[in-house]
């Protein structure tokens, strides 16, 4: 059997990510949790704590409501995971706000600005050298 570079914690985290996304989409009735996207899951190596990274659309106040709903639903989500996964120890589910999306958008916007700025400079400098 070939050994992969994919640890057991990573494989279980991927499975948890898919299952939590499905649970939030299909099973949770709380309207506060409707606009949530599961972006990643980090699982400790001992498989005891699963940090579920989520993004939520809306204002800061709406985001607070979403995380209040997620905190209330975490026990239900853990129970559903227990029915879907066969693990000796079911990890504690902790929902965390994913900040990488807005950060990534900002980085892309800054890169676009850098890409746009040199072009006018080249045009003006080429005009000066030709004169």
Shape: flat
Q: What is the name of the CATH topology of the largest domain? A: GMP Synthetase, Chain A, domain 3
CATH superfamily of the largest domain: K homology (KH) domain
| Helix segment tally | 4
CATH architecture of the largest domain: 2-Layer Sandwich
Question: How many separate domains make up the residues?
Answer: 2
* % residues in beta strands: 15-25%
Helical percentage: 55-70%
Please report the total strand number as a whole number: 3
Major β-sheet strand ordering: 1-2-3
Order of helices and strands: HEEHEHH
**CATH domain class name of the largest domain:** Alpha Beta
Structural class: alpha+beta
Q: Can you give the mean pLDDT?
A: 82
Distance between the termini: 71 Å
Describe this structure in words.
- By secondary structure, this protein is an alpha+beta fold.
- It folds into 2 domains: 91 residues, 2-Layer Sandwich (GMP Synthetase, Chain A, domain 3); 33 residues.
- It has 4 helices and 3 strands; from the N terminus they run H-E-E-H-E-H-H.
- It has a 3-stranded mixed β-sheet, with helices on one face.
- Helix 1 packs across helix 2.
- The model has no long low-confidence stretch (mean pLDDT 82).
Task: Name the features.
131 residues; alpha+beta; 3-stranded mixed β-sheet; GMP Synthetase, Chain A, domain 3
Helix-strand blueprint:
Layout: H1 8-26, E1 36-43, E2 49-56, H2 60-84, E3 92-97, H3 100-116, H4 118-130
Parallel strand pairs: 2-3
Antiparallel strand pairs: 1-2
Helix pairs in contact: 1-2
